[in-house]
Amino acid sequence: MTDSGGMGYGGVADRAPGSGHLGGGSTLLGYIGIDTIIEQMRKKTMKAGFDFNIMIVGQSGLGKSTLVNTLFKSQVSRWSSAWGSEFKLPKTVEIKAVSHVIEEGGVKMKLTVIDTPGFGDQINNENCWEPISKYINEQYEKFLKEEVNIARKKRIPDTRVHCCLYFISPTGHSLRQLDIEFMKHLSRMVNIVPVIAKSDTMTPDEKNEFKQRVRKELEVCGIEFYPQKEFDDDMEDKNENDKIREAMPFAVVGSDKEYQVNGKRVLGRKTAWGVIEVENPNHCEFALLRDFLIRTHLQDLKEITHNIHYETYRAKRLNENGGLHPISANDTQESNL
């Protein structure tokens, strides 16, 4: 029903006939309001907030914590949260997760940074990826057990790793065997994004040659990093992702220090030759990495994690021993006694 002012239900103004179309090409006789669903979804999502879990892997001294702090423009790494400056290198690979709620423009996101101190730092690094692989699978298992509960939570806490930033040492030569083994073992269970750390230690020519060499080695070893070609939805996705794949691994520099350059305060690293500006695309590819991870592909990273990696784990687990049995509320109470 519409009043004399032409207002429909909820105070939404009716549009003139001909403003919409049926699937077969017929014209709608008036405004329905289908186009408001995007705004409805936005409001609901804004209230619920987002989760994003990022893992950082690489040898110590490659600036992992600094880069993550730079990415999110806040102190979100373990150094600034729980472990302090007196952190001692562990003798084995450890998993350290720190969560923060960050807010921008009314959008809240629970960001969890998972660090892996000790990775690649031992004399014998054989199978040092196993604790990391175990942690990733444990998060899938945790989510799966919540899913099969008879009395499920309205919103299952998501601790699954959505992205693994793998830091490559800027040797300028080739990937280490450890790099290859790690990415080979984990590329099928998590979204791996390789980055060349501290790229300012190489000349532009050395950097470009190293990037090409790394891409070639990954291709020869059959290692697929994110965004994987097989998951491109359409030609638009493929064209966009092809440009990203050609630019990877991103050669980055991280810094949480500001300097004055041409009258502006910029994040950068000071050297004898001047300031390397972190967000200047002529100096390094940090801005490309940031835009890719946060501004264009964050939701896709989460969807690939849920629809591909988690689904693969879920199918495997449900096929084992006849699958998981639903857990009732009584079972949960008894297990806690």
Automatic annotation (TrEMBL):
Signal peptide: none
Compartments (UniProt record): Cytoplasm
Pfam families: Septin (PF00735)
Septin-type G domain mapped to chain residues: 48-320
Record's GO cellular component terms: cytoplasm
Molecular functions per Gene Ontology: GTP binding
Keywords: Cytoplasm, GTP-binding, Nucleotide-binding
Domain of life: Eukaryota
Gene3D superfamilies, alphabetized: P-loop containing nucleotide triphosphate hydrolases
CDD domains: CDC_Septin
Family classification: Belongs to the TRAFAC class TrmE-Era-EngA-EngB-Septin-like GTPase superfamily. Septin GTPase family.
Protein name: Septin 3
